[in-house]
C-alpha cells in the first residue's frame, strides 16, 4: 500500500481506473452495453405487450424496473446496487408481490361464486335469466349499421321493422323486403360478413325490445341469421343499481358483500356474485364462526406437537447416526453416508404417497410382510395415524439432520476434545460439555427453521393422510392428523370444490404470524446459547 | 475487477429473466398450444362432405381468406378426434380452430380461473357436472341448441340444461355397469344383488364383486346400489331438474346404509379396495365381477387390451328399485368472455353435433355419442360392450351438476367408507348425522 496522496487529480484518476467499466470503452463495457440493450429490448417489448392488454400495473412496474436497471448499471456510483439489484427484483416478484397479493385477497370475498367483477356478474345474470320463448318463434334477421350502432331488422306481418338495444322495433319507411328478410333500409347499411364478425360479441349480447311494452319480450340472436324471441325475467336498472324480477316484482339491491339480495335476504334466480372488498370480515370469522374458531385451538396444539416431535426425532436420530459415522475407525464411511442421504434425494410428496400405500391395512407391505399379515389400521385410527405421520416424517427428515450434524461435528476443533481427554473427561462428559454446546450454536437456527417448515408441512399431511381420519361426515371438524394449514384447506372448502380464497388467505396470514412469533422467540433464546458458549 | 464483472453479467442475466417473467404474466396461457393442422396425422376421416377428406393438408383447403380464429381447450386423448371437425370448419367457413392441449384434470379449475380473469379459450371440452359451478361463477354463456336438439339423446341435452336454458353442447355419454369375466363365469341368472353375490361366491375366487371404495369412499361407484333403495341424492322438481333438497334422508337411506354395512362386515365391500386395486384384482382373475365404466373396458391397459373375455350387464337391484348409475355427459362449454360468440356457436352447434364428428370422438374415447344418428352407426350398434353399457344405463340418472353437489361428494363418500369399514357402528344414526351435516353445508354455501 502506497502512502496516501492529497493530490485530488491522482485520486480521480485512480477512481476512474477502479470504475472503468462503468463508462469507458473497454471490453467489459461493451459486454455490459450488449446485455443492457437486450434487457431494454425485452423490457420495451414487455411494456408494449402489457399495454396492448391494458394491464396498467404491469406497465408501470416494468417502466420503473427498466429505468432503475439502466440508472444502476450506467451510474458511476451505486456499486452495491449493481450487486443486489437482480436479487431485489426476484425478491420483489417472487416474495413481496406474492405476499402483498395474499394480503389483498384476505380482505376480499374472492372464492366460489365471487370470481368476476360486478359489471360482468350483472351481464351474466341478465343473460342467464333471459330465456327463449317456449313457442320457439324465430324470424329471419338482417343486421344493419348506422354510425357505430348495430341494428336488428326483421319482417313482422310483412312490414320491415328496425330496432336496437334500448330502442324498440319500429317500422322503417322505404325499406326493401325480399322474401321474409329485409334487403335494405334507407339510412342504414347492411352489414357485411366481415362487419358482423368484427362485432360478433356485441351482436350476440344484443336484446332488442319487440315493442315499448317490455312484457312482449326481446329479440336476440345466437347465429346472426335468425332472431329468436327471448323473455327476460331479470332487469338491471343502472340509476338505482338494482335488479328487478319482472315476474314477481321483487327488487334486489347490492348487499355490499358481492351479491344482490332482496329485502328478505333472498338471491335472484341464477345468481352470480362478484369479487369485492369485505374489510376484516374474513379475520373476524376466526372468532365469530364456530366452524373456524372451534377447531383452531385444538389443531394448534397438535400442530405444535407435530412440528416439535418431528424436529426432535429427526434431530436425535440424525445426531446419533452422525456421531456413529463420524468415528474415524469406521470403514466404508462414504458408502454409508451416501446410503443414509438417499431418502433426502427423493421428492417428499412421492415418499409420502409411497408410505400411504405401504401402510394400507389389507395390502400394505408393513402389515402384510413386516408384521406377518397383521390387521393394524395405521391411517384410520386417530392416534396410530398421528404416530404414522411422525414416523414417516422421521424417515423423510433424519438425513437432513444427519448431514447438518456431520458438518457441525467436523467443525468442532479436535484440540478441544484432546485437551478434554487429557483432563480425564469421560466420553459422556466430553459430549455433554463440549460437543453438544458447540453443535447447538451451529444447528439451532436450522432446528428453528425446520420447526417452522414442519409447522406448515402441508405436503406430508395431504399426501399421507389427507388430514384424516375424519370425524365421520362433519367436514367442519378437523381430522385426526390435520395441522393448521391442512385444516384451513378443508375449512375454506378448497378440498371439496367450494373454495373461499378470502378466508383461506386470511387464516394463512394468521398462521404466518404464529410461526413468525414462535421463530422470533426461539431465535432470541439461541442468542443466549451463544453467550453461554 | 474480474469478479465484479462476472457479477454484473450474472446480474444482468437475472434481470433479463426477471423481466421476461414479468412480461410473461400478460402473455398467453402456458398450455402447449398447437395449431390444429399440426395435431392431425393426415389420416382421412369419414364424412358426408366429399370436400373434407384430408385433414392434415392445409393446402387442400378451399378457403382463401380466413375470417376468424377460435381457441378451444381439449384434453390429450381427444385432440386427434376433433381434427376432423376443425378441418371441416376451416374448409367450409374459413375459420381456424386452435386446439390447445390440456390435462383433463386441469380443465375445470383452469377454465374457471382464467375466464374469471378475462382470459381463457372460446370453448372448452368438459363434463356436465361442471355446469353448476361454471354458472354460479358466471364463466359460461348460454347456447341456443334448439336447431339440433332433436338429433341428440334427450337425456344428454337435459344434462346441459339448467332453469330452462342450455349451457353446453353434449357429445357423449358414459356410465358404469356390471362387467363379467367370462373365463370365470359364463352365465348370470341373478336378478338381485344378493343373488349375484351368492353366484359369485360359488366361483370360489378371492373376491366376489369388486367395487372401488378406498378409505375416503366412492359415492359415484356406490350409487347404483344406493339408488336401488330409492335414495336419490337430490329431489327433482316437476320439470326433472335437481333441486338442492336432499332425497336420500329417511327409510331408503337407512336401508342402504345398513345394507352396505352388512356387505362390509361380510367382506364383499372393503375400504382397502380402491380404484387401482379393484382394476388389478379383476385383471388378475381374482373376481368374476366388477362394477366399473368404459374407461376400464377399452383403451390402453384396459380389460380388452389385456385380452380378457368380458361381458357388460346391467347392475342387479339391491333394494328393490332399479339400480340406476349416474349418467355422465361430456360436452363443450362456451366462455362468457369469448369475443367470437357467433363463430363459436356456429362451430359448436353446426359442427360438433354432426354424427361423423361424434363417431370420431367415440373412436378416441370409447364413450357413447349423444348424436342418435351416430348411435345407430354399425361401429357402435354392433359393439357388444357399448350395447352392454347402454343397457346398464336404461334407468340412469343424470349426474347432478348443481353447485350443492360439491357439498355432497366428500361426506357421502366418507360415510360409505365408515359404514363399510365398520367404523360407523350405528348405520341409521350416522346416516342421519350425515344428512344434517350436508344440509347445513349446502345452506351455508348458498348464503
The largest β sheet of chain B comes out as: 8 strands, mixed
What structural class results from the helix and strand content of chain A?
A: alpha+beta
CATH fold naming of the largest domain in chain A: MetI-like fold
Mean of pLDDT of chain B: 85
Total separate domains of chain B: 2
Number of helices of chain B: 18
What structural class do the secondary elements of chain B suggest? alpha/beta
Overall pLDDT level of chain A:
87
* Count of extended strands of chain B: 16
CATH superfamily of the largest domain in chain A: MetI-like
Spatial separation of the terminal alpha carbons of chain B: 66 Å
Strand content of chain B: 15-25%
User: Could you name the CATH homologous superfamily of the largest domain in chain B?
Assistant: Periplasmic binding protein-like II
CATH class of the largest domain in chain B: Alpha Beta
β-strand percent of chain A reads: 5-15%
CATH architecture of the largest domain in chain A: Orthogonal Bundle
- Total number of beta strands of chain A: 16
CATH topology of the largest domain in chain B: D-Maltodextrin-Binding Protein, domain 2
What does the model show?
The complex is a heterodimer of chains A (533) and B (447). Chain A has 18 helices and 16 strands. Chain A is elongated. Helices cover 56% and strands 12% of the residues of chain A. In chain A, helix 9 (290-325) crosses helix 13 and helix 17 (484-491) packs antiparallel against helix 18 (501-532). The two termini of chain A are 38 Å apart. In chain A, strands 1, 2, 10, 11 and 12 form a five-stranded antiparallel beta sheet that branches. Chain A has a five-stranded antiparallel beta sheet with strand order 6-5-4-3-9, with no helix packed on it. Chain A is of the alpha+beta class and 533 residues long. Chain B has helices at 2-24, 36-39, 76-93, 104-116, 131-136, 154-159, 193-203, 219-227, 251-266, 275-283, 294-297, 341-351, 355-365, 372-375, 378-381, 384-392, 409-421, 427-445, and strands spanning 32-34, 68-75, 95-102, 123-127, 161-162, 165-166, 169-174, 177-181, 209-210, 234-236, 242-246, 289-292, 310-313, 326-334, 368-369, 397-398. Chain B folds into two domains: 29-173 and 328-392, D-Maltodextrin-Binding Protein, domain 2 (3-Layer(aba) Sandwich); 177-324 and 402-445, 3-Layer(aba) Sandwich (D-Maltodextrin-Binding Protein, domain 2), CATH 3.40.190.10. Helices cover 43% and strands 16% of the residues of chain B. In chain B, helix 9 packs across helix 18 (427-445). In chain B, strands 1, 2, 3, 4, 7, 14, 15 and 16 form an eight-stranded mixed beta sheet that branches. Chain B has a four-stranded mixed beta sheet with strand order 9-12-8-13. Chain B has a two-stranded antiparallel sheet with strand order 5-6. Chain B is α/β, with parallel strands linked by helices and 447 residues long. Chain B is built from 18 helices and 16 strands. In chain B, strand 2 (68-75), helix 3 and strand 3 (95-102) form a beta-alpha-beta unit. Chain B is globular and about 70 Å long. The model of chain B is unreliable at 1-59 (pLDDT under 50).
Amino acid at each position: 500500500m502506497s502512502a496516501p496522496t492529497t493530490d485530488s487529480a491522482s485520486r480521480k484518476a485512480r477512481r476512474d481506473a477502479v470504475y472503468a467499466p462503468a463508462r469507458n470503452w473497454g471490453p467489459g463495457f461493451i459486454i455490459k452495453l450488449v446485455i443492457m440493450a437486450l434487457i431494454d429490448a425485452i423490457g420495451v417489448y414487455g411494456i408494449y405487450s402489457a399495454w396492448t392488454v391494458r394491464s396498467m400495473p404491469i406497465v408501470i412496474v416494468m417502466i420503473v424496473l427498466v429505468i432503475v436497471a439502466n440508472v444502476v448499471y450506467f451510474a458511476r456510483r451505486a456499486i452495491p446496487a449493481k450487486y443486489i439489484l437482480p436479487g431485489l427484483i426476484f425478491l420483489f416478484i417472487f416474495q413481496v408481490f406474492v405476499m402483498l397479493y395474499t394480503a389483498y385477497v384476505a380482505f376480499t370475498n374472492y372464492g366460489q361464486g365471487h370470481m368476476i367483477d360486478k359489471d360482468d356478474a350483472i351481464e351474466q345474470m341478465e343473460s342467464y335469466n333471459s330465456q327463449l320463448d317456449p313457442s320457439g318463434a324465430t324470424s329471419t334477421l338482417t343486421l344493419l349499421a348506422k354510425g357505430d350502432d348495430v341494428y336488428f331488422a326483421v319482417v313482422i306481418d310483412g312490414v320491415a321493422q328496425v330496432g336496437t338495444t334500448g330502442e324498440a322495433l319500429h317500422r322503417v319507411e322505404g325499406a326493401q323486403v325480399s322474401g321474409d328478410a329485409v334487403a335494405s333500409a334507407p339510412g342504414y347499411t347492411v352489414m357485411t360478413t366481415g362487419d358482423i364478425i368484427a362485432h360478433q360479441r356485441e351482436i350476440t349480447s344484443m336484446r332488442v325490445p319487440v315493442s315499448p311494452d317490455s312484457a312482449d319480450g326481446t329479440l336476440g340472436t345466437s347465429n346472426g341469421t335468425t332472431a329468436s324471441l327471448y323473455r327476460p325475467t331479470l332487469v338491471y336498472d343502472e340509476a338505482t343499481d338494482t335488479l328487478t324480477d319482472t315476474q314477481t316484482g321483487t327488487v334486489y339491491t347490492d348487499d355490499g358483500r358481492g351479491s344482490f339480495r332482496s329485502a328478505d335476504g333472498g338471491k335472484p334466480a341464477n345468481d352470480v356474485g362478484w369479487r369485492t372488498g369485505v374489510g376484516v370480515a374474513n379475520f373476524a370469522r376466526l372468532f365469530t364462526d364456530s366452524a373456524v374458531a372451534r377447531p383452531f385451538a385444538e389443531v394448534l396444539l397438535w400442530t405444535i406437537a407435530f412440528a416439535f416431535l418431528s424436529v426432535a426425532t429427526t434431530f436425535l436420530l440424525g445426531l446419533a447416526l452422525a456421531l456413529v459415522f463420524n468415528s474415524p475407525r469406521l470403514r466404508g464411511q462414504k458408502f454409508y453416508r451416501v446410503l443414509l442421504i438417499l431418502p433426502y434425494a427423493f421428492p417428499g410428496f412421492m415418499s409420502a404417497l409411497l408410505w400411504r400405500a405401504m401402510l394400507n391395512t389389507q395390502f400394505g407391505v408393513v402389515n402384510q410382510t413386516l408384521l406377518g399379515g397383521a390387521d393394524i389400521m395405521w391411517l384410520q385410527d386417530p392416534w396410530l395415524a398421528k404416530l404414522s405421520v411422525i414416523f414417516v416424517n422421521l424417515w423423510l427428515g433424519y438425513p437432513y439432520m444427519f448431514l447438518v450434524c456431520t458438518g457441525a461435528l467436523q467443525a468442532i476443533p479436535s484440540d478441544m476434545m484432546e485437551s478434554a481427554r487429557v483432563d480425564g473427561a469421560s466420553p459422556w462428559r466430553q459430549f455433554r460439555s463440549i460437543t453438544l454446546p458447540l453443535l447447538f450454536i451451529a444447528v439451532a437456527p436450522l432446528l428453528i427453521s425446520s420447526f417452522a417448515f414442519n409447522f406448515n408441512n402441508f405436503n406430508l399431511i395431504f399426501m399421507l393422510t389427507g388430514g384424516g381420519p375424519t370425524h365421520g361426515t362433519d367436514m367442519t371438524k378437523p381430522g385426526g392428523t390435520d395441522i393448521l394449514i391442512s385444516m384451513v384447506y378443508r375449512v375454506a372448502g378448497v378440498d371439496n370444490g367450494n373454495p373461499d380464497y378470502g378466508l383461506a388467505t386470511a387464516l394463512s396470514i394468521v398462521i404466518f404470524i404464529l410461526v413468525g412469533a414462535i421463530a422470533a422467540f426461539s431465535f432470541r433464546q439461541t442468542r443466549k446459547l451463544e453467550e453461554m458458549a | 475487477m474480474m469478479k465484479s464483472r462476472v457479477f454484473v453479467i450474472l446480474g444482468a442475466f437475472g434481470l433479463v429473466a426477471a423481466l421476461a417473467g414479468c412480461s410473461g404474466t400478460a402473455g398467453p396461457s402456458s398450455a402447449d398450444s398447437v395449431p390444429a393442422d399440426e395435431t392431425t396425422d393426415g389420416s382421412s376421416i369419414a364424412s358426408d362432405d366429399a370436400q373434407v377428406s384430408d385433414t392434415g393438408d392445409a393446402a387442400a383447403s378451399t378457403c382463401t381468406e380466413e375470417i376468424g380464429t377460435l381457441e378451444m381447450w381439449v384434453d390429450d386423448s381427444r385432440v386427434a378426434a376433433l381434427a376432423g371437425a376443425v378441418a371441416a370448419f376451416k374448409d367450409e367457413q374459413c375459420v381456424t380452430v386452435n386446439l390447445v392441449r390440456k390435462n383433463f384434470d386441469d380443465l375445470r379449475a383452469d377454465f374457471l380461473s382464467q375466464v374469471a380473469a378475462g382470459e381463457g379459450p372460446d370453448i372448452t371440452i368438459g363434463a356436465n357436472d361442471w355446469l353448476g359451478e361454471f354458472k354460479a361463477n358466471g364463466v359460461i354463456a348460454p347456447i341456443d341448441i334448439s336447431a339440433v336438439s332433436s338429433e341428440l339423446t334427450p337425456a344428454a341435452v337435459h344434462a346441459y340444461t339448467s332453469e330452462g336454458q342450455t349451457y353446453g353442447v353434449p357429445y357423449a355419454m358414459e356410465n358404469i355397469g356390471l362387467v363379467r369375466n367370462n373365463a370365470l363365469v359364463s352365465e348370470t341368472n341373478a336378478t338381485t344383488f344378493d343373488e349375484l353375490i351368492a353366484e359369485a361366491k360359488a366361483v370360489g375366487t378371492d373376491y366376489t364383486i369388486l367395487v372401488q371404495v378406498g378409505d375416503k369412499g366412492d359415492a359415484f361407484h356406490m350409487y347404483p346400489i344406493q339408488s336401488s333403495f330409492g335414495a336419490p341424492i337430490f329431489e327433482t322438481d316437476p320439470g326433472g331438474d335437481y333441486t338442492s333438497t336432499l332425497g336420500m334422508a329417511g327409510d331408503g337411506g337407512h336401508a342402504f346404509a345398513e345394507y352396505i354395512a352388512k356387505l362390509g362386515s361380510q367382506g364383499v365391500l372393503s375400504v382397502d379396495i380402491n380404484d387401482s386395486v379393484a382394476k388389478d384384482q379383476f385383471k388378475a382373475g381374482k373376481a368374476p365381477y366388477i362394477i366399473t365404466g368404459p374407461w376400464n373396458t377399452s383403451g390402453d391397459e384396459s380389460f380388452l387390451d389385456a385380452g380378457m373375455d368380458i361381458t357388460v350387464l346391467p347392475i342387479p337391484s339391491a333394494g328393490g328399485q332399479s339400480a340406476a348409475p349416474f349418467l355422465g355427459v361430456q360436452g363443450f362449454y362456451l366462455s362468457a368472455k369469448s369475443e367470437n360468440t357467433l363463430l363459436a356457436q356456429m362451430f359448436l352447434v353446426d359442427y360438433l353435433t354432426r354424427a361423423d364428428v361424434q363417431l370420431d370422438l367415440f373412436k378416441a374415447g370409447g364413450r357413447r355419442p349423444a348424436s342418435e344418428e351416430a348411435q345407430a352407426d354399425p361401429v357402435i350398434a354392433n359393439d357388444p360392450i357399448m350395447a352392454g353399457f347402454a343397457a346398464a344405463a336404461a334407468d340412469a340418472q343424470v349426474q347432478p351438476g348443481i353447485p350443492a353437489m360439491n357439498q355432497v361428494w366428500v361426506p357421502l363418500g366418507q360415510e360409505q367408507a365408515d359404514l363399510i369399514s365398520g367404523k360407523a357402528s350405528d348405520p341409521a344414526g350416522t346416516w342421519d348425522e350425515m344428512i344434517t351435516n350436508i344440509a347445513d353445508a349446502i345452506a351455508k354455501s348458498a348464503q
